[in-house]
Amino acid sequence: MREFPVGDRPEIVVAVFSTNVTVVEGVDGVIGVEVKGPDREVDLVDVVHTGDVVSIRAHRGGRRWIGRGASVQVTVPASTAVSARTASGDLRLSFPISDMEIDVASGDVHLTSLSGRGRIKSASGDITIGDVAGGIRISTASGDVRIEGVDGDGSIHTASGDVSFGSVHGSLEVKTASGDVRIRRFSGVKLEGGAMSGDFDIGLVSGMAIEADIQTRSGRFRNLVPSTSKKDEPTVSATMRLKTMSGDITLR
Fold it and tell me: Which of 99, 116, 148 is the last residue of a domain?
């Protein structure tokens, strides 16, 4: 593994084709890069160090990137910023990220946590994220999106991919065509959602006071939230705007 000294604002820049990239947490002040695979493929992956930035790039060959048979493992200080672009390679980020910008085609993205701002653009790859404490913007065509927790704000736009959340404590906007949206536990301040044929299934915490605007043209709306006593004071106030064409909307 090659090691590169970095300062207080470390960053990695990744631009590969079908190469799988794994990034894990290491020690402060050092970014380590190890490229594995056949020698002819490893030689086609360039690693360049400039100041606090380490770039990992595959050579271009004709109309495609080469270096397909290689895999890359990177060790970074916690909260390293990430900029990555891949085609069919998977990207696994197993460390707390401060800021990121990711573009993928069919590769999957796995992210442990995000404390700052992030953007992910994907065609058919699935996106899995642990906790988001800052802000996340995601746009995808057919890939599914799964996020365990949103404490900040999120904006998710998808065509046919399903979107699921464990918990949402901040504000969230979800727009989808035929994908379904599920939130197991919503206790945030704002929820806006729109769908064509996709369904919404929203779990609410007890004691919420919601200013709601819910519309569906040919879908079904069901309110399964247990009734509460009028004496109970609301503990959470939120606004909710949900609209579908033929999709169902369920509150639990």
Answer: 99
- pLDDT above 80 for 75: yes
**Domain contains 87:** yes
Residue type present at position 204: L
Residue 4: phi and psi, rounded to 5, are -130, 130
Cβ proximity of 47 and 33 under 8 Å: yes
How much is the pTM?
0.91
Helices (H), the chain: 39-42
Residue 205 CA neighbour count, 13 Å, CB half: 16
Q: What share of the chain is helix, strand, coil (3-state, %, to 5)?
A: 0, 60, 40
- Over residues 189-204, the pLDDT tens digits come to 999 999 999 999 999 9
Q: Is 80 left (phi over 0), alpha (psi -120 to 50) or beta?
A: beta
